[in-house]
Amino acid sequence: MQNINSPSFFIGKGGGELISFGSGQPDLAPPAEAFAVLDNYRSFKYGQVCGLQELREALVPVYEKSQPEQVVITNGASEALDLVLRALYVPGGRILLPKPYYYSYPYNVQFAHLEIDYYELVDGKIVLEELMKKLPGARAILINSPSNPTGTLQDREVLKEIEKMAEELDIYVIADNVYRELVYVGEFYQLAGKKVISIDSFSKTYGMCGYRVGYLHSYDQQLVDKIVEIKTHASMNTNVLAQEMALAALKSPRDYIEQHLQIWSERRDMIYNGMKELGLDLWQPEGAFYVFPKIENANRAINELYYKYQLIAYDGAWFGEPDRVRFSYALDVEKIQEGLKRLKEYLAEK
Question: How confident is the model at residue 234, as a pLDDT?
Fold first, then answer.
């Protein structure tokens, strides 16, 4: 049997008897308004590199006193982050990443030829005093709130202090906001300011993962122009049809998001309570759709869970935490219940 040492082994796997707590891909369908676009759409030409004008205009209200020119539509949030990091490149530039982190972050930084420095999260939370020691001299700090993999939401006052320090120290703040609408406890705080670069996506809120529509925003017009120039030679325009669908999704009733948030909340309670009953050590998610319990020998655990119990979960080492395992609850309640049953069997065997 092949040892599983990368999330790439699992991506795209599913169906049959397999229960996947792996990929962070919503099983809830996009709004009907998005699919309605398909009925009459016939365009086939290139679009603007910076993105569909109407979509950028529709996103402007998210950011106070903003303009469409400060928004770029990208091939998912992944491309947005890649473009931002490449645009921020300076020799020896140091990027502060949270630990634990989303598994692609270190690769994104390395591909941009920047240097990685980590700031440790405690139970998923930023420790401001420790972070402040690392800020001076950094090129940028990346903040993901709500977080993948921890499910935690950073405190408003901590984020406001980081905003202030970023301007004083001339450091960029990259805010990965893809789970901004999936908050169960507290309120999402929109980082703002001249040094903030916001990244977002239609994948999580609107279930449009496969369409690959993300976007970024910055008040730094010179930086945005540089990003557009890089994108011109890297990927050109983002899929135009997918952008039209994203625009239609954005115009759908707010009820769509609220109803889905209720579903996510019920699933969160089910998997969290189920894992607590199994004696696992974990914190209750405040947002996103992940739990991150402690499980000894995580790599061995995910291999045995897959090969013996037909259950997919992600090794915490991929996120910088080798003593934890990430479970996504982006699947229906029957599968969550069955998955918990299989996990119980595995733990009982140990």
Answer: 97
Residue 14's pLDDT band, with cuts at 50, 70 and 90, is confident
- Residue 237 and residue 114 in one domain: yes
User: SS in 3 state form for the chain?
Assistant: CCCCCCHHHCCCCCCCCCEECCCCCCCCCCCHHHHHHHHCCCCCCCCCCCCCHHHHHHHHHHCCCCCHHHEEEECHHHHHHHHHHHHCCCCCCEEEEEECCCCCHHHHHHHCCCEEEEEEEECCEECHHHHHHHCCCCCEEEEECCCCCCCCCCCHHHHHHHHHHHHHHCCEEEEECCCCCCECCCCCCCCCCCCEEEEEECCCCCCCHHHCCEEEEECCHHHHHHHHHHHHHHCCCCCHHHHHHHHHHHCCCCHHHHHHHHHHHHHHHHHHHHHHHCCCCCCCCCECCEECCECCCHHHHHHHHHHHHCEECEEHHHHCCCCEEEEECCCCHHHHHHHHHHHHHHHHHC
- The predicted model scores a pTM of 0.96
pLDDT in tens, 16-26: 899 999 988 89
* Over residues 246-255, mean pLDDT: 97
Same domain, 286 and 339: yes
Contact 119, 98 (CB under 8 A): yes
My answer on whether 222 and 329 are in the same domain is no
Please check whether residues 64 and 168 belong to one and the same domain: yes
pLDDT per residue as tens digits for the range 163-214: 999 999 999 999 999 999 999 999 999 999 999 999 999 999 999 999 999 9
CATH (domain of 89): 3.40.640.10
Co-location of 224 and 309 in the same domain: no
- Number of structural domains, the chain? 2
Q: Using only C-alpha atoms, what is the Rg of the chain?
A: 20
Task: Examine residue 202 and state whether it is found in any structural domain, yes or no.
Answer: yes
- Report how far residue 252's alpha carbon sits from residue 232's, in angstroms, rounded to the nearest whole number: 31
Identify any residues that bridge with 115 across adjacent strands, giving them in sequence order. Answer: 94
